[in-house]
Amino acid sequence: MPQYKLTYFDLRGWAEPARQLFHLSHTPYDDIRIPMADTEGKWEKMRDKTPFGQLPVLNVDGFDIPQSAAICRYLAKKFGYAGKTPEEEAWADAVVDQFKDFSVAFKTLLFATRAGKPEEEILKIRYEIFNPARDVYFILLNRILKKSKSGYLVGDGLTWADLVIADNLHSLEKLRAIDDDDEGHQNLKKYKEKIYGTPDLEDHIATRMDTEV
Amino acid sequence: MPQYKLTYFDLRGWAEPARQLFHLSHTPYDDIRIPMADTEGKWEKMRDKTPFGQLPVLNVDGFDIPQSAAICRYLAKKFGYAGKTPEEEAWADAVVDQFKDFSVAFKTLLFATRAGKPEEEILKIRYEIFNPARDVYFILLNRILKKSKSGYLVGDGLTWADLVIADNLHSLEKLRAIDDDDEGHQNLKKYKEKIYGTPDLEDHIATRMDTEV
């Protein structure tokens, strides 16, 4: 079996679906985490050695793979969570890219909040940028799930697209971006709970460090 | 052979690498183009029938695949341009996702220009948002190409990542975002010319409608 090393910050973020793929497939891996309070400057020392100056990076027997979706797709194919046909694989890819398009707005809100921008500016971003993008994205997710007989986003079983989308929904809940009185939002919350209730995932989710994102 | 229908606007844009994959593999397909001056409102009539309310969409024997990268990856796998190993496939994916990250800044500049924003605002976007993102992205591309023995971005042959990156470099040239007196920029221009000079592609490139993007 190859030696896997996954390096990321001490967050769920863009590495969490990859961690979940390791857990689902009972594959040992090194879960290397740079502390958010990086007092030793570990990240600065390491940055130039990463392929794109970014994390996560997956190292497979010495070979580095950057970019979160590329990492997840690679592992999903190895472990059987990429989709059962070329068409299912393409749909898993498409759903993840649709999420990535939405995540531009998500990051704009997140970074403004983290940067401690004035409340007024954050609210403006929330209502003018984030909410419209989220609403379009949620409608698409609900439409896919409504047509799905399995309750999964693609085909009749769990794919890496479910892991990516469910974990982001978890972040959206934490950021109070899922409304209690909106049926579409609540459907997505139930969907997230279904994915989080996957056997072989529950233990991991119960014991992981549950950061804000 | 499946029946392929690729629907997009009358632009190169996010559909062009898919069109090139059809040409490279000598695969017949319907190249359906919605005119940019859409006087008959074709797009509005069609929008709700597309999976994500967006184009391009690839239809394969009646089955719709949305999202440009998902479409290209699907075709690249079918036609032998996805990479020769799982690790090469992951690197092609990673390079395309790195381009997509950069393209957020590219779109910001493009849409501001198209919307006819005041010159001062466009210059601000160009110098504060677009140029810094482009510079980081160009350094990464040059670093990959410097290490490459083949002159391609991944492995020893052409992949869909080359098609995506080269066609965007062509757009950047048209938008005067490639400097004549910068060595790194000129290296990328030469790389683009190499990809554009691929046999089975030259004919297509010489006869296609060469829109701004």
From TrEMBL, chains A, B:
Listed InterPro entries: Glutathione-S-Trfase_C-like, Glutathione-S-Trfase_C_sf, Glutathione_S-Trfase, Glutathione_S-Trfase_N, GST_C, GST_superfamily, Thioredoxin-like_sf
Keywords of this entry: Transferase
CDD domains reported for this sequence: GST_C_Sigma_like, GST_N_Sigma_like
Lineage: Eukaryota, Metazoa, Ecdysozoa, Nematoda, Chromadorea
Family membership: Belongs to the GST superfamily. Sigma family.
Protein's gene: gst-15
Reaction catalyzed: RX + glutathione = an S-substituted glutathione + a halide anion + H(+)
A biological process term (GO) from this entry: glutathione metabolic process
Name of protein: glutathione transferase
GST N-terminal domain location: 2-83
Natural source organism: Caenorhabditis elegans
